[in-house]
Design brief:
Elements: H1 3-20, H2 28-50, H3 60-83
Helix pairs in contact: 1-2, 1-3, 2-3
Length: 84
């Protein structure tokens, strides 16, 4: 996947993660995109390690793995921001 594809996937995944775990987060849409892209990488890494597959394109399996990674990162991000 190209850089633009990762950004689009990250935006979609970040929005889905925000719907699953709503709340106020500082940073707005920019942080949502970054968490979505990073979540796709984290989800792909964890999915590969567990034998579930990786994020390879725009299919439902890759989308679910990326959303899982984004949700995980959103939880960690909120925990770090709450401490400060």
């Amino acid at each position: 996947m190209g850089v633009l594809s990762w950004i689009i996937l990250g935006l979609i995944v970040g929005i889905i993660a925000k719907f699953v775990i709503p709340g106020k987060d500082p940073g707005g849409i920019f942080i949502t995109i970054i968490l979505g892209i990073a979540g796709a990488f984290v989800g792909g890494f964890i999915g590969s390690a567990l034998g579930l597959g990786s994020v390879t394109g725009f299919d439902i399996r890759s989308l679910l793995i990326a959303v899982g990674g984004s949700i995980l990162l959103l939880i960690v991000y909120r925990a770090i921001k709450k401490e400060k």
